Each structure stands twice: as C-alpha cells, then as structure tokens.
Amino acid sequence: MVQLTGITKTFPGVRANYDIDIAVRRGTVHAIVGENGAGKSTLMKTLYGMHRPDSGTIAIDGKAVTLRSPSDAIALGVGMVHQHFQLADNFTVLENVILGDEPTAGGVIKLADARARIEKIGRDYRLSVDPDALVEDIGVGDRQRVEIIKVLFRGARTIILDEPTAVLVPQEVEQLFSALAELKREGLTVIFISHKLDEVLSVADEITVIRGGTTVATVLPSEVTARQLAELMVGSELPSPETRESTVTDVEVLGVEALSLVNDAGRVLLENIDLTIHKGEVVGIAGVEGNGQAELVETIMGMHTPTSGAVRLESEDITGWSTRRRREAGVGYIPEDRTRHGLLLEAPLWENRILGHQTQRPNAKGVLVDRKGAKADTQRIVEEYDVRTPSIDVMANALSGGNQQKLIVGREMSGNPRLLIAAHPTRGVDVGAQAAIWDLIRQARAAGLGVLLISADLDELIGLSDRIKVLLRGRLVADADPRTVTPEQLGSAMTGAGGGES
Amino acid sequence: MSDRRSTGGTKLGLPTPADVVKPIALQRRTISFTGWRLAVLLGGLVALLSIVRIVTGAQQIDSAGTVAAAIGFAIPIGMAGLGGLWSERSGVVNIGLEGMMILGTWGAGYAGTLWGPWYGLIFGTLLGGLGAVVHAIATVTFGVDQIVSGVAINLLGLGVTQYLSALVWPNQPTQSSSIPPIPTFTLPGISDAMKDVADKGWFFVSDVASVLRAITFDVPYTTVIAVVLLPVTFFVLWRTSFGLRLRSCGEAPYAAESLGVNVYLHKYIAVIVSGFLAGFGGAVLATVLSGIYREGQTQGLGFIGLAAMIFGNWRVGGLAAGSLLFGYTQAIQLRSGEAVHSLLLVIVIGMVLLAAWQFYGRRVVPGVVSLVVAGLVFLWYARTDTLPDQVAYVTPYVATLLVLSLASQRLRMPAADGKPYIKGQDH
Amino acid sequence: MRRFWLAVAAPALALVFAVAVTTIILQVSGHAPLQAYKDMWDYGTQPDSLVLTFNLSTTYYVAAVAVAIGFKMNLFNIGVDGQYRLAALFAAYVGGTINLPAPLHVAVILLVAMLVGALWAGVAAVLKNRRGVSEVISTIMLNYVATGILAYLLAEGRFGVLAQGSNNIGTPPIPASGQVPGIEVANLPGPFHGATSAIYGMVVVAVVVGVGYWWLLNRTRFGFDLRASGLSPTAATASGVDAKRMVLYVMLLSGAVAGLIGMPQLLGEAHTYNLDFPAGLGFTGIAIALLGRNSPVGIVFGALLWAFLDVSRQILDLEGVSKEIVTIMQGIAVLSVVIAYEVVRRYGIRAQQREVGRQLGTDEPVLVEAGA
Asked: What is the Cα Rg of chain A in Å?
C-alpha cells in the first residue's frame, strides 16, 4: 500500500499541490487524472523523491518514509517512467538501463551479467528490446519499453507511469496495457497518470481525480462515465473541438508537389508528398512522432531545402525562398516546441511580438525597429487574445505555457497570414487556453485562412480538420474524413496496420 | 492542380524499430580505424614520407630525431587533449586548458629547479588542477558560460604565473633556471640495430627503423607515463561504472540525475582531472622538452590539444593519432626548414590522391579543385628551395585549421557538451 | 528601476571581491596593501596619468566593443588580437607609402584597417559556416598565423624599413597628412589641468564606435536578429534569421571594428608599425567585454577602470611591489564578475516569475504547464 497524505508543494509563484490524499493498494493499477497543469506530475515527482513536499507524509507499506532523492525512492522499490523519456541517445539500451545501478566487480562493469538480467526481464514481462541497440535508433514504443525495463531492473515493486500513452497509437496502447496486466499479475503496483479518460476507464482499478492542485474525488471505473470524470477534472462543462459547417473554398493557398527530403546520411525523411490546402480549410496531419511531421513543417517553412519537389504559396513557387521571405509572404507558424522555436524566453513580451516578424510593420520601419509600434501592438494582442500578464515588459518565461501559446497565436494571426502552420498548438496548455486556441483557429478558418494542423491529439485533429492525411515513414499513406473516421482507424493507419479511406 | 490521393497504407505488420524514420540526426560516419585498415593507412603514410624523403633528399622528414621530437611534442598536446576529453565527456567545455598548462609549466619550473624534476612534475600537475577547480566552480556550481570561464582562466593563469615569477625570481622573471632532466631509458640492442638500418636510407624499411629507433632510444619516462594514461582513460571511462556515469553526464545529465547519479560530483571530478592532465602536459613541456620554464612557452599547445581531441572524435584512439599528427608538425617546423619545404610535396601527392578518389566518386568539381590546389602547391615547392622561418612557424597552426576543416563535419560530440546543467530543472 | 540596481550590483560586488582577494595576497607576500593602493591612486590621478588613462581607454573600448559584437551572439571571436595587429600593419604600410590630402589620407588608413580586420575574421566565419569548425579554436589559430605573417612582412625589403640608429624595424612613417592631432587639455580646468601630453584625437572614433554599437543593437532589425540569435539560436532560425549569414556578417563587423583598435595609437602617436607596437590588446578587449557584460555603457566603465589600473600600476615597481598583482586583480575581477552576472541573472528570472505569479493569481494557483 502506498499512501500520500496531506501533500503540499509550492514553487515560486505557483502552488502545484495542495493537501493531496491518495491511497494505492498493492497489486492494483491506480490512475490519477486531471487536466494539463493540475499538478499530477509534480505529485509523482514527490513520490519519486525528486523533490521534497513542503508538508504532508508519504507511507509505503505502513511505514512513513522520507525521500531525499530518487535513489531513496528506488531503494524503497519505487520506479518512475517519465513522460519525456530520460534516455541518452548515444548510449545503448543496456547502458541506459544499468546507469546508476551497474553490476560491478571492483568498479568494473560486468557486461555479460547485465545483458543476461535484461534479457530475463524481457522474457518475464514480455518486454523485449535488443540490449545493444543504440537508443537513438529505436522507435518510441521501444524506448518506453526500455524505460520500463530500467525500472524493473532496479527491483521496483511500485511503478509510476507519467502520461505513458501520450506518444503511442491505439495499437501500442493495447500492448502497453497488456504489459501492465502482466505486471499486476506479478504483484506489482502501477500508478498511472493520464488525461485520456477512455484509456483510464478501461485499464484502471481505481481512479483519483486531481483538479487545481488538490484531490477532488477517488472513484471506481465501474461507477463513473468518461463524461462525469471529465467534469470532475474541469469542474464545468467541457469544451469540444467540433467544427460545424464547411468554409472550404476552392482557392488554393498551399500546394506541395512531390516533395522529398533525404538527409546527408541517405535517410529518406519525406517521400513524394503531395498536399493542397485551400482558403478556409484546415488540413490535419496525423502520424506517430518521428515519421516526418517535423520535417514536413520545417521544409514548408524553409528551414530545410527539399531534395526534390516544390512548394507553392497561392500561385508563386516558394521552393527556393528563405524562411524570412516566406514569413513576409504571409505564412504564420505556431511551432511544436514554443520554448525552443517560438520565444525568446529572456526577452520581454513586446520583443517576442517582434520575433518572426522583424521585417514587417508594426514592428519595423525600414531597417529600424519600431519600438513604439511593437509595444502598442503587443498590448493589443494581450487584450484580444486574453494573455494573462501584468505588463508587456515582463520576460516571456514568467508566463504560463497557456499564456505563452496565446501570445504566439496572437502574434502569428496578426498581419493577416494566408497560411497558418500549427504544430501541436495546444500541447502543454491548460483547458481554458486550449478552448480559446481552438476558437481562434475556427474563426481564422472562417475568415479564409488555410491551416495545416499537426497534432498528436486525435480528438483535436478530428474535431478541427476538414480533411485528415496520415503521415507514415515520410509518406502520405492515407486520407480520412473527420466526420466519419474513428481514433482507432486513424491509429491503424498511423502505424501501417491498416489504412485507406474511411 | 488537384490533390492526388494516395491510396491505402501498407498492410504489413507493425513497424519494426528500424523502420521508424529517424529525424534528421547528425551523421555518424565513424569509420573505425582498427585492424587491417589501420595497418594499411599507417603503411601508406610511411611509404609516402619515404618516397618524398628519397626524392627530395630531406632526411629530416622522418628521421629518428624528428620522430622522437614529434613524440615529444605529442605528449603535452596529447595530455591537454586527454584533459579536454575527460572534461567534455562529462559535458563541460574546457577552453582554459591553455591556462592550466601554463600553470603546469610554471609549477615544474619552480619546484623542478628547487627540488628536482619529479617534484616539478607533481607540482605542475597540482597547479593545473587548482586552475581547474576554479573553472569547475564557475561553470558547474554557478553555471557561467563555459567558454567565458575558460577564457577568464587563461587570463588568470597568465597573470598568476607572471606575479609568482616576479616574486620568486625577481631578477629574471620571465624564465627560470634550468630544470634538471628526467631520466630516460634505452633498449640497448634494438635501438642500435635500428639506427644502423635507418642510416642506410632504404625505401620504407629505413623509415620504419627510424620510428622504432625513436621509441627505443633515450625515451623519457614521462612519455611512458603519458602513453599509459591513454588506455587507463579508456578503461576507466568505458569499462567502469564510474566512467559510465561520468559519460552520462555529458550525454543526458537529467536522465542521469533521475537515476540517482550525482551529476555535479562527476563534473567536478572530470574537470579537475582535466586540470591535472593539462598541468602534467605543461610540466612535461617545461621539464622534458625545454628544460626550463619560460613565459609564453605553451604557444597555443593547449588549444592544439583541444583540436586533437575534436579530430579524435572525443575518443582516446583518435586523440592519440591527432596528437602525433600535430606533434609532428611542431617537431618538423623546429628542426628543418628543408623538411617543411618537402612537406609541400607530401601535400601535393596527398591532394592528387584525394582528387583521384573524388573523381572515382564522381565528384568532378571538388576533384578539379583538388588538382588545382595540388598544382599551385607544386609550383610553390618547385620555385623555392626552402621556406622562410616565419612560414615554418605557422605550420602547426595551419595544420590544425586544415585538419579541423576537413574533419569537423563528420564528428559527433557528447550530446550535452557545453550545456549548462542545473539540478532539478528537467530539460 | 530594479533592473538597473541588479545590473550594477553584480560588477560592484565582483570588484569588491577582487580587491579583497588582492589585499590578502599582498598582505601574505609581505607588502602593505593600503599603502600600495594609496600610491596607485596618487600616481594615477595626476594629470599626465589621467591623460594616459583616457587615451588607453579609448583603445581598450574599441577592443571590447569588437569582442562584444560577437559575444552578444555567442560567437566567440578570440581572434581580435591577430585581427588588429594585421590591420595595423597593413594600414600603417599603406599610410606610409601613399600621400593624400589630410582628411582623405586618414580615411584611407582607417578603411584599410577595417578591411583587413574584417577579412581576417571572415576566414573564421567561412570555416565555421562551410566546415563546421568552432570559431573559438579557429580564431586562436589564426592569431598565431597572424603573428607569423607579421614577422614575415615586417622585414626589410617587404613592409619594413630599418629605423635609423636602432634595431627597430617599422613601416615607413606616416606623413603629417595621415596623422591625427591630439586635443590639448593642459589649459582646461579640471582633472587634466597641467598635463604635458594631449588626448588622442581618435577618441572621436571610439565614441562613434560606441554609439554605433548601441544603436545597431537596440534600434535596428539587424541588431534584433543578432540579439535573438544570441538568446535562442533555434527561435531565431524559426523566425527567419539566416544563421550562416548572421555568423558571417557579425564576424566581419567584429573584425572591422577590431581593425580600428590600433588606430588611436597609430594615428595619434606612433605613426608607424614597428616592433614596439602594443600587443595583447585583443585579450584586454575580451576581459573588458566580459566585465562590461557586452553592454555599450558597461564597457565604458570597464575600459576606464582597466586603463586606470594599467597606468597606476607602474608606480608599484618603485615601491617594491610586483606590478603583476594588478593583473591578478584584473583576472579575479573578470572571473567574479561573470559569476556574479550569472547569479544575478538567475535571481532576476525567479524574482520576476514570483512577481508575475503574485500579480496574476490571488488564491488561484497559477497552473504549471506541460506535465504538472
């Protein structure tokens, strides 16, 4: 039995957990659900010893424990598989698994020993991976298996999984769940964080709902529906991404013809991509991370030169244009990773407004930067897009993720873009901001904007898109009609287990 | 133009790991130079030098004396490079190696003249480590930009040694008196036999004999120590748990942290070891190569060591090769202008071979460029008898630039090298 | 307002620390620290010393700006030293061999200097762009190569002529039309009153460089791109900045300004490039840029302070204190300043996050995103 009582944890300016109570019985799968930003990960990091709670107690099998570091947690049989994998790409699977707990003889690693142990775990729990493969070379599902093996290698009896299905397609989720069932059979305890309610309902024995940093309810899956759970999570009516009437015109705004991209090592990243987006249309791209979505977006933005093929913006061939020129021509870009590609974290908001548009009004006059114009426009964006900030002079990293994203959306929508490329636009964003961003995209679409939408959230894709295409191994392999397709069908197409039109 | 619809997906099973498309990653063409490839490469190199020696008559191009000097210089360069390797494998860039080397030379000069050469080596090594402690504090604890800190250390190293010199040798602050020499060893039978063969001037055989003579005659024990440190480093970093953890700090420090590895500790150790090595390199420079401490005697060897590390792709074997290469350019520049002049011919032949390979790979334009360069260098060779001293002086530095230009793109440094690490701050 | 105090706190603390450590070293080596400081101050505030300090600081300022232009973009142009010496040599040679009416002659000299400096820096930029060579190592190597080239060219029959009655080789002296007169300050009231030497006319160039640097950085699009590339290269690329072009332009600019480093000395005093021409100014520039945190105003204070220390340290010899102690003080100051800046920067971020959290949320906890 793992028990957390009265846990509170505060960070500067943020109260992440407040008076949390959770009890998890041995040999069960216990799910913790809550929206993005509710405090789930922080709680689990506390259980894993990555930080100390400000108050409250943790008890494992009846004994109160103090966890000063992950090593303490590991020693007590707690293991954590993080949402963002903690793996060294340049190391082999074996090296990643044994790191920190190497079998040694006088300091020297016993490689054969380690390999044997890993292979045994693979057989026992049906989680096999090649120990000598470089992590960089293996796929996402395999990497997750490595993370789980890592945890089992250290003799964990309690395993915490943080949003494990975020990067998996439905078929891989099934595999994961059967692995979890196996673990349960062996008597291990699984704590499972998620915001995907149907998955949670199908696999958990007990569910705890966290909202606003505190526990709201603990329920049994048999007693509750997904809708009810969702309302517990949010405390109010859920927004839905569903779009109603079609606003698709027949004027093309983006044309991608036979686009191919091969990297220096000869790897085919994009193969023969054909794509058209019309004004007033949202085209969604579905695909497992790593199948070429990022490369497609970056090539359309001009950050890679295609090996062959062309990109057209309305009637102009922009294949040879620089990123700057494309932006000036009216291409907006909401990047997948806003802290790395969308913002200057240590610059004030008004300078971030200029980013991406440094050559256009109102940010610039000729070769000079128009500070007054930029500041005024930033103020407008803050008001129109409901960016919660005390002023436009604060640095971007003082804002929450949702507000950062709203700023970026506002920035990209200003200047009347013709085409908007939105990559995972609501990733890491709280539900309120997510609804706002969906609304913004719908409004822009109605105003004639063409949108290329990349998302891992199949509900978002289905709800917002007019057409969906599936990207697999760099090729567009399937089309789907969002009005009729189901997440399972999309998932099959995304992994190549089945496809075609639906 | 209409949107050509692509029809259905493949109906194969789930994708195997190899099928998943990799995002654009750094190329990893590490051609492993082991076994017969290495033998062929070395053999070819010796043959090339031998041909040029015979054609130009520049005996010094690979005489035993030159090879010995090359090895001599390779030691400080290699130790600095090895220091850089330790540090960068843990994720800390250490530009301050030059400053630590300077501290090492001074330490050897001071303690060596007072108490004997071995004390000089030890003291120089320790001083280098001291400089590294400062670098570690600035970069690991305070998170200062690693290059900035390294530059500051270089400035400080110079200042400190100048001050200390003025303090202890007020009459002659820019150099010390002679340091007594380090004992050397000689393999009696073999080294004489090799000398005889080398003197004969035969193609290839004599050149090999020169090399063997160089490593068996009058070899200082410090060379042995330095050479031993190479496989020791390999073993520690690649075969022990300490080494795995240290390398993990340079590849994925947050992953290591989540597994309970004390990243700060490993970085500190790595940086301090790098200081010891650089200090040792400086101490050897002063004690064995020059015999005295002289202000400014490092002449950029610390940076060349870093270049050797990069050339070696952050691995010990490559580092050794790079150090020998750069050591050779240092040696030849000092010993004979004639030999440097003959090196031009080596470059010509090398460029012609490169052009042939490029044509073979159907890269016509680069091939033509190589030929043109070969032609120009040949003209330069033919129209001069010897190179002016100043040109010879720049040989090692130009060589470094050339080597880095050719090699940099195919290399891969540790993934988290140079990135600041703050405990508890995931990503 | 708080930002101002934070900006000043760091260097102030660092200097205090540096002085403290130096005091300890002096004490331990058997000298009286306070006496040494007093001697330095007395000597350094004499009119002639002040003129010297001022002149020196103009050179230092230009050097620091040349370095800072690159540093602002995380481009480490350590080759400023080689760039300025080569530039000075070529500029001096051209200046000594041509003859043009006064303002034109000076302009040509300056132009040559800037071109040579830019070119030498450009080599490193090309190597970085096309071959991925780290500019840190390449510029350092180029420094040594520059030394070799200088030694080769500064010889009889090439660029050099033997000065009469001495062993010194220099470029042909620059005639009067290529000289910049000093500014007489001896009769002005104030600190310089009674000085026997003049302030470099080239101080104008230093001012222009400083103002230009500030303006470029804060008011132009190019400056915005430069700062963005320094803050986040990935975000800059996504925003349309051409990374390779930026590397090239910034290195060229840095090298061009580096070329001007030797100009105050060349045009205002030496009028020839010979073996006595000051060396190592590039490294001083690096230190001062770090001290002034690459800011146009901060560097002014850094340059003045450094110059004052360099001038006033001369007196220490007479008192039996080795003047290298000042070098140590300077080195410690640089190191502690960079540490202090980092500490202050991190504190500033956290403080602002707390403040924003406070101002926005009241009882509502501000939601932490992405996996909270």
From this structure: 24
